[in-house]
Specification:
Radius of gyration: 50 Å
Shape: extended
Helix content: 25-40%
Strand order of the largest sheet: 6-12-7-8-9-11-10
Largest sheet: 7 strands, antiparallel
Strand content: 5-15%
Distance between the termini: 154 Å
Number of helices: 14
Oligomer: single chain
Amino acid sequence: MYAQYNLGNPSFCAPTPFSPGFNQGYGNFGMTQQMLGSPYGMPQGWGGMQNQMQQMMMMMQTMMMFQQMQMQMQGGGMGPGNFYPPMPQPYGPIPPNHGFPPFPPQPYNNQPYNNQPYNNQPYNNNPYGNGPQPFPGPRPQPFPAPAPPPWNGPKPTPQPAPAPKPVPKPAPKPLNAQQWRTSLNGNPGALKAYNAMTPEQRATVDRLGMNHPAEAGGADANFLKIMGNGRLTNRDRQGQTTLQHLDQLDRQKVPKEVDKPTAYRELVANIAEPGNTNQRGRGTCAPTSVEYVHVKNQPSDYARVVTGLLSEKGEVRMNNGETMKRNASGLGPDNSGRTSVDRIYQSSMMDYADGDKMTYNNQTDQHVGADGKNSHQGMYLNEEAKALNAVTGERQTSRGVDPNNTGFMGIRRFTTDRDLRHELSEGRNPIVCMTWDQSPGARDKDHALTITKMDGDYVYLRNPWGNDEKGGTNGPPREVVDPNTGLVRMKKDDFYARLTGINQREDDRSFAGRWWDRITGS
């Protein structure tokens, strides 16, 4: 007799040997099995066990159906009664819905569970489906972080606001040949110098004169002036004329921060009148005094140095053999009110004079050390001497002066006065340091000026304030001689009462010769 049993899904029940030795097959538990009256049936004596096995298989089939229902309704999980791995969900695991009726299985959207599309989409042959829709409700939001406590530390040091970029003026229209010739013929001194030039020089003068007219139109009066007084044909130590350096500036490329036509006119104006150099709103009285001495006594070399600083490379060889490089912080406009030529020359000289271990910051007007800390403003006497040495190529002597110590019977004041006179007679202009404005918060408490002349009662000085020098009480008693150039004169008693330092050429006279000049006043 055969007994046939439905033992479940064949995809679940795999062939399994049922023998103590596992090497003899008695059949497998498929969908139907012949259990009795068959050569492959159960061994005798196993009838009771057969009934138990049948009941176990029916229980397993029921558990499988229940697990499939749970997977379709809850999306899997490793909770109690669910040993299938969790299905992926959009925003994390979905909490099990324990309140859902577990049995008997109910249709989903009026559709049977097995092998039916989910939201009209196939299951991709997944027997467990793709799970239910995401758990309803708002998505969790990130927990807001607490606000930081208020800052109770020191306030940062305010930095000076960058200067607004000036709006460039429209360049004046170049002159034609007839306009240039008319202007030249109207200046007898310039015309005489022009006629004495070589044909090559006249051609260069014509081109520069026509390409760089005055802002108001017509020929540049400063260009005609340096033609007439001979400063245009002045030569530097290499034999190059001012005209050649101006021609070089006109032809070369300059940094984008510099407007070349404007810089060209500024350079010509300084050469025409050295008193145009001005420190304005920076504590650069010492390098401005050096600049004044440079352009006054060596106009061609000054034009050479400025042309080098305005080049793309931004460096120039000085007369002492060292190289001065353009200071980057002084290249662009600032709030000082200086011309671009003065700003670049003075900031570069400040940077050169303080040596390799410091850098001058034109924006803050401070020398900054290698540690990033501000060191000082202005120039010390030895830094000023280094700058003069670079400009003149001559060794310089710096010495401090005690205004309260005039020496026995005033011998110190006497020798100082005679030595300064000697320097002037040699065509040099000593730079002196004086106690100047003692008002609270004054910038120029110690001030550098250039001696231009001395007579029996007065010392004539050029103040680097230029046309900002109006006299008054912000400094020692003085009289303004030329309000356009900063030239003042001061009584000798007032001058020596405030003199604190001198920079001048190293004296190469013998001891006897020095004293002979002092006694004779030569």
